[in-house]
Design goal:
It is built from 4 helices and 7 strands, in the order E-E-H-H-H-E-E-E-E-E-H. With 153 residues, it is α+β, with helices and mostly antiparallel strands.
Length: 153
């Protein structure tokens, strides 16, 4: 069962993709169209991210707000944006470093805080790139702070 008390059943509209996945792909297509038209300004990207966070149901919204505060304080050089309609943060080269996927986005049991290939998290021959979040405690926030610091180092 999902954290909301609902089952994590996904709505399939066509073979292979759920309705939630199709919606995320449409959001990404709109983001790419905006980039192709010269892109959004930094302030517009931030507003789009904050709007997406405001639309989230609890507890996703509270986690996203706290993650946004962590990322922007630990790595102010990262730019906020949306990516598949989710909060994400990119470096000066336009490469995604990290993102927050709310549980509600795909009716999942947990939210995800993840990293993309440009993040400097390499540790030997294997390392995690995504973390499941059921709540964001002070201890978890400290772990995220350290991960973000490493990612941008």
């Amino acid at each position: 069962m999902a954290a909301t008390g609902k089952s994590a059943k996904k709505t399939t509209t066509a073979p292979g993709f759920t309705a939630e996945e199709r919606a995320a792909m449409k959001e990404r297509a709109e983001e790419l169209k905006a980039e192709g038209r010269g892109g959004k300004k930094k302030a517009d990207n931030l507003k789009a991210l904050l709007d997406k966070i405001a639309e989230m149901p609890e507890p996703d919204r509270a986690m996203a707000e706290r993650i946004h505060a962590i990322v922007t304080s630990v790595a102010p050089e990262l730019d906020a944006k949306t990516w598949y309609g989710m909060p994400a943060y990119q470096n000066k080269d336009g490469k995604n470093i990290c993102f927050f996927q709310p549980a509600s986005k795909f009716d999942a049991r947990y939210a995800t805080f993840g990293f993309e290939g440009a993040a400097n998290l390499d540790d030997g021959t294997m390392w995690p790139t995504a973390y499941a979040l059921t709540e964001l405690t002070d201890e978890t926030a400290k772990q995220i702070e350290e991960l973000v610091r490493r990612a941008v180092s």
